[in-house]
Amino acid sequence: MFRRRKDKVELARRAGDRLHRFHGGLRLHHYKKISCEIPVQRAALPPRLYVPLLQHTGREAEATVSEGQHVLKGEQIGCFKQLGSGCVHAPTSGTVSAIVRHPISHPAGEDGRCIVIRPDGLDQWLEQEPLADWQSLDPAALLQCIRNSGIVGLGGAMFPTAYKVQEASERGIHTLVLNGSECEPYISCDEMLMREQPDSIVLGARILQKAVGAERTLIAIEDQMGAVHQALQAAIDRSGTASISIVKVTTIYPEGGEKQLIQVLTGLEVPSGGRPADLGLLCQNVATATAVARAVTEGKPLVERIVTVTGSGVRSPRNLLAAIGTPVSNLVDQCGGYLPGAARLVLGGPMMGYPLASDSNPVTKAANCILVLNEDEIRRPQAEMPCIRCGECARVCPALLLPQQLNRSIRAQKWEETQAGGLRDCIECGCCDFVCPSHIPLVEWFRFGKSRLQELAAEKQRADRARQRFEARESRLARNSLARKQRIAEKKRALRADAGQQEKIAESIERARKRREKTE
Amino acid sequence: MSRHFATGGAPHFPPHRTVGSVMRQVLYALAPGVAAYAWFFGTGVLLQILLATVFALALEGAMLKLRGQPVKQFLGDYSAVVTAVLFALCIPPLAPWWISLTGMIFAIVIAKQLYGGLGSNLFNPAMIAYVVVLISFPQHMTAWPQPAELASHGLGPLEVLLTVFSGQPAGGLGWDAVSGATVLDAIRNGAAAGQSMESIRQSPAFGQLAGLGWEWIAGWYMLGGLWLLWKRIISWHIPVAVLGSAFLFSSAVWIADPAGNPSPLVDLLSGALLIGAFFIATDPVSGCTSPRGRLVFGAGVGILTLLIRRWGGYPDGVAFAVLLMNMAAPLIDRFTQPRIFGHD
Q1: How far apart are the C-alpha atoms of A95 and A68, rounded to whole Å?
Q2: How many CB pairs lie under 8 A apart between chains A and B?
Q3: Interface predicted TM-score (ipTM)
């Protein structure tokens, strides 16, 4: 285990040669077929689009349009002006009817500022300027294009792709991993994308590979995705690239998590607090790759995505290509509406997705799935029982944590113990919640614990800075007074050392003595 | 029109299992062993289970009420029933009713509820109860009936009832008439008298492999335990460590001195070792929780049990071994923390 980074990077070069296992995890029923029967359809535009300004990790972007302004499809409507990142584009042509706060289903908060667009029905694109020939461009130009196109990780993380690629390329990447293993039950948008647009994925892979300077690409898919392998292989063959290969991984939740997928492919663990780049790897979702391909070769920013609308509460589950900002209710309507008994609306999968209080929330770049579940498919609110230390949570934890001990330390507010227990390494996959017989909301406690640890770390940083300032001042004062003492001592010594001066001193002492004798 | 939904935390799945369902499955797994036990030793076994369960539930309910806890929720977790059944299976089937009551007071009131109820007890409640009554009432706790095949005076259900409630064998019989030495008693007394293993084995208490009747009961307990393993109610670490360490220890002393020690098979199939390995030492609350910790914990139980059997003051030592290891569990857990993902 005590390998230096260089050795690990070398080992990671063999990624995909054979499959490894990760600790714990769950074998869940997939429920994917129900939404894979119909090809992906383009969703009709709603009467109003609510495009959130926060569709990435970090702070909300600034609006770059004003109310009443007419926008074209693909026109930038929000951006961080200084950084040029976090860009949001108009999903269709129309008029900005308002800029309001609206529920946005972002982990950072319930509400956020949204640009409301009234489509004009023309769906007219802004004049596109595709990059002439991407193969002749340098990585910096590719990154610039990715950044301007507002591309974020479409697997759900919403981390700005350009930033991730740039950071990785600075560290040196040998293998690009395209993650097509969507591991959560019900979600099938990536599977449908790989079936229907394999060429776009392969093209995106080639562009990303060039942008990050990788030697090859692995596309990881699940072993139960029947038609996907063939489709992708055919696309690779058509492209004539030898550096892209496909790996089938066993479907065990959460094998699609970045760290778990890397462990499966390489047998190596991403160091705690580190990135896959520490192993010379970069992970990207397959849908992100197609977005990159569209941005670079067609000049089209990210304004739409495939959303799985599924669950036993939806009449006709399917995958829809939806404009960003389309309200969830609109998509459900286009799938035949709710069935009687629909009891919960989830954005994302059943393991990590979060519940929506209302279906007026818009689709964001991270919205891979809209899941409607029946009463008997969800957890009814029930009393929590005490932990009986059965250890099931530890058995299924892919991060090798002891969730029940973390739970205890967080509740006891023992923050050092919590930190030592590895809370920061929790990936919030929810396996522990799933198996807990006492129905303790472990992940909720872990999120709370993480935010407390962050606050404490920030507090400590402030305190440390204040202490450093204080100590610097103290030592400066001490230095000054020492220097002063030294100067005085120096002077005295100089006086003593001077023979003429010594004589004068002796004379004056003599004079004084005589004067005293006279007066007596 | 937008539609509103009730929210709730992930995972959005119906509960996989509950504390109650876990405990119920433990009870199901005990059923074959209980049936075999009753087959060989009569209806007293079932009566003791019934008595202990009634006392346990009554005491648990009263304590929950006193502590201001939701009574129905916690009575429905079946943990008190599991404690009661395990205790009842450890005491002689003809023990008087107040043994059960005393035991349950110590198990439920003191060892469990006064420590904070479900999940907070440091010690295995059933074993606390067993040790308390064993030390306090040695004469009642060592009066083990003979298996049905050996008993000169088989007791019918009514006589069993009378015996348990009067504290005296029904029909004017003496305790000697209805009880006899167990295999572990025979080994212990024989060894103390300097007899060889061969002559000890002549005792009528022995069956094919170990104790007459007991060997079958132990086998059925193991079957139930394997079912729990298969259902993932318990992990393999503790049973394997208990039985493995006991087997190795027993083999070592047996190979060193075959005339003075029973074979490892006799050791494993006698006394409470099998029910202990699968049902008692696997109590999650009072045991270790990390996988390596569970191996250490189980090995400790196995070795201490055999040490007590060979050189201690009691014929069997599972209860003492479990309680001693309960004490060590927090320390063991501390030193057997698994390595966290991504840490060297």
Answers
A1: 6
A2: 175
A3: 0.88
